[in-house]
TrEMBL record:
Organism listed in the record: Massilia rubra
Pfam families: cREC_REC
Protein name as it appears in the record: Cyclic-phosphate processing Receiver domain-containing protein
Species lineage: Bacteria, Pseudomonadati, Pseudomonadota, Betaproteobacteria, Burkholderiales
Domain Cyclic-phosphate processing Receiver, first and last residues per copy: 1-88
Amino acid sequence: MKVYLDDERRTPDGWVRVYWPEEAIALLRTGDVTEISLDHDLGDDARGTGYDVVLWIEEQVMTAGFRAPAMRVHSANASAREKMEAGIRTIERYAGRAGNA
């Protein structure tokens, strides 16, 4: 399953649309997500951002052996995009080391 977290953009064909981090995380917990594309700004920061999903994946990879799906960021928020992409690189580096251990 491909998951698309966004509050405004059109969902690409073949992707499952979610609007909030908790929805994305619920799908990630199923283990069926092969790819996730994240927006940062979702219209209500009190309900979370795409970065919260990156943090959840990072914690699960490092503490619970979670296998992260392919991840990408499609946010127009440049500084948030950089922060999210840095988190993804950290996850990928850790997962690469853990897979080689």
